[in-house]
């Protein structure tokens, strides 16, 4: 059993063959998925997919890079989506992204979006799926001063080991995806090797960031197996044991039922 804690099944890449792709992944032991939105439309689509498959859950949110879409209506739109389905178990992906945006004015908008969505998560007692890029200190300061009831996951973590430990102290988990398998991903491997397994979860971020040996191609739901296999070799632990620990970590974050084979 593997829980993919961050996947965009709502991507156009999968429109034509979603059922086949999910079946392929399930046959390889990938039992659960969190389908993540990044704006209102993709969040709606995430819910549609989650409502269709009992092993898929949805996350709704506005990613910081979509700050142009953020307006007075955004939070109430997200709130309607949360109330529209029991399968919404998370808010995200939300956070701060200074890689693409260097202007102070835009950083301020991103911080405002982030804080409003944390407040929304607290209102509905939901955890966060965090997208943080080149902004770890600012994101940390916000998460430290505005306690989120349910904490959450730092998706596609790209910060330092030191910073990861600080987020973990606040109660957050660190997600590893395809990047971990890249030859040149020294920091990611270093962070992964030095954290307690109770603080780790896995993700694909598919259709992006395919793991080795599929790097550069469209990422598929089943490829998470490659990442977990690679990770188990790095840590010198059995694949099954690593699946079990990280699966339970994921279940505990999203407060969802354990997987039962209903087919
Ligand atoms: Zn994503």
Q: What is the secondary structure topology, with strand pairs?
A:
Layout (H helix, E strand, L loop, with lengths): L1 E6 L10 H10 L2 E7 L3 H13 L3 E5 L13 H11 L3 E10 L6 H20 L4 E6 L2 H10 L6 E4 L5 H9 L3 E4 L9 H9 L5 E3 L21 H12 L3 H16 L9
Parallel strand pairs: 1-2, 2-3, 3-4, 4-5, 5-6, 6-7, 7-8
Helix pairs in contact: 2-3
The structure holds zinc ion.
Strand order of the largest sheet: 1-2-3-4-5-6-7-8
User: Mind telling me the CATH superfamily name?
Assistant: Metal-dependent hydrolases
Q: Give the overall shape, derived from the CA principal axes.
A: globular
How would a textbook summarize the main sheet?
8 strands, parallel
Rounded radius of gyration (Å): 17 Å
Predict the CATH topology.
TIM Barrel
**Average pLDDT for all residues:** 95
In CATH terms, what is the architecture? Alpha-Beta Barrel
Question: How many helix segments?
Answer: 9
Number of strands: 8
Low confidence ranges:
none
Roughly how many Å apart are the termini? 15 Å
Helix content: 40-55%
Strand content: 15-25%
Total domain count: 1
Instruction: Look at the structure and give the CATH class.
Output: Alpha Beta
Give me the strand/helix succession: EHEHEHEHEHEHEHEHH
Which class do the helix and strand fractions yield? alpha/beta
Q: What hetero molecules are in the model?
A: zinc ion
């Amino acid at each position: 059993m593997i829980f993919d804690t961050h996947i965009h099944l709502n991507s156009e890449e999968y429109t034509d063959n979603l059922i086949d792709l999910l079946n392929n992944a399930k046959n390889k032991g990938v039992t659960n998925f969190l389908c993540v939105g990044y704006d209102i439309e993709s969040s709606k689509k995430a819910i549609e997919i989650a409502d269709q498959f009992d092993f898929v859950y949805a996350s709704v949110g506005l990613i910081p890079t979509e700050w142009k879409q953020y307006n007075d209506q955004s939070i109430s739109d997200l709130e309607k989506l949360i109330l529209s389905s029991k399968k919404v178990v998370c808010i995200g992906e939300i956070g701060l992204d200074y890689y693409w945006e260097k202007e102070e004015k835009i950083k301020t908008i991103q911080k405002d979006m982030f804080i409003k969505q944390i407040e929304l998560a607290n209102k509905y007692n939901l955890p966060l799926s965090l997208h943080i890029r080149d902004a770890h200190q600012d994101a940390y300061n916000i998460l430290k001063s505005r306690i989120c009831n349910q904490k959450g996951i730092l998706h596609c973590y790209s910060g330092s080991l030191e910073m990861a430990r600080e987020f973990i102290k606040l109660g957050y988990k660190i997600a590893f995806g395809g990047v971990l398998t890249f030859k040149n991903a020294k920091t990611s491997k270093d962070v992964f090797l030095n954290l307690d397994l109770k603080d780790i979860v896995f993700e694909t971020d598919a259709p992006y960031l395919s793991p080795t040996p599929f790097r550069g191609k469209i990422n598929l739901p089943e490829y998470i197996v490659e990442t977990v296999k690679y990770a188990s070799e790095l840590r010198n632990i059995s694949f099954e044991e690593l699946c079990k620990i990280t699966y339970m970590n994921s279940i505990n974050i999203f407060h969802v039922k354990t997987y039962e084979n209903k087919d």
